[in-house]
Each structure stands twice: as C-alpha cells, then as structure tokens.
Amino acid sequence: MTMTTAEADKILTDNFAPWVLALGLSVEALGDDRAVLRLPWSEGLAREGGALSGQALMAAADTATVIAVSAARGAYGPMTTVQQSTSFQRPVTGSDVLIESVPTKVGRRMAFADITMTDERSGELAARASTVYALLG
To answer: What is the 3-state secondary structure of the chain?
Structure first.
C-alpha cells in the first residue's frame, strides 16, 4: 500500500524539530520509489547576495530522504543520518526548490538515496546529494 502525501506530511509534523518545520517543506509527490518535497522560497533562508543558503538545501535533502525511505518501507520508523554529501551547482534566488529523493537501496539496517534539488522557476539543477541512513527500528 502506497503512503499518501497527507500521511507523509504528518510524518513531517510529528517527527521533526521546530526549526526543520520552519523551512515550510511540503510533500508534493510520493511513490514507493521516491519522494518530492517543496522548499518554498523565503528571504529568511537567503544568505548575503540573495541566494538560498546551502544549509537550508541540505536540511531539505535530509528531510526528503526520511520521507522517501519511510514510503519505501511502508511506514515511518526511527532512522539517523550516517553520511550526507552535497554538491552545489548553481544558486537559487527567488524560486521554490523541488527536492526529489530516490532511495537506491533500503535494507534491514541501512538505506541509501540520491537527491536532486531543482530550481522550480528555471528547471535547472541547483544541487545534488547522496545520503546513507542507519535504520533504527
């Protein structure tokens, strides 16, 4: 049974710290093999020069992966980030970002995912990440 976007949004509100919720992330699309979250543009997340901060993008990628792994497993379970590597390709200014996390392997104790972060307005790739998670429950 595929998780709904409403169920995934509830995972966000029930399991993430207030500062992560303050990013305003919402689940746009969900399947057993991916999750797409929206990071809305906010001046509060911009750094000097007006570009969206890398820290916001990295937190969004990490959060999207929790949702994607939960969808792949059929439900949320405790997990923790073991490794995240992010490469920034271009700045994002004045545009929402679509974060797509695709789990590449979900095992009993570990999960791996690739993430793309796309400037919604231009359609250009802004950043890529790869993550490794320990599945705790």
So the answer is: CCCCHHHHHHHHHHHCCHHHHCCCCEEEEEECCEEEEEECCCHHHECCCCCECHHHHHHHHHHHHHHHHHHHHCCCCCEEEEEEEEEECCCCCCCCEEEEEEEEEECCCEEEEEEEEEECCCCCEEEEEEEEEEECC
Which tens digits make up the pLDDT trace of 100-118?
999 999 999 999 999 999 9
Q: Is residue 2 predicted with pLDDT exceeding 90?
A: no
pLDDT in tens, 22-44: 999 999 999 989 999 999 999 99
pTM for the whole thing? 0.94
* Residue located via tokens 């949004």: 9
Strands 125-135 and 110-119: antiparallel
Q: Pick from 54, 34, 33, 53: which is nearest to 45 by CA? A: 53
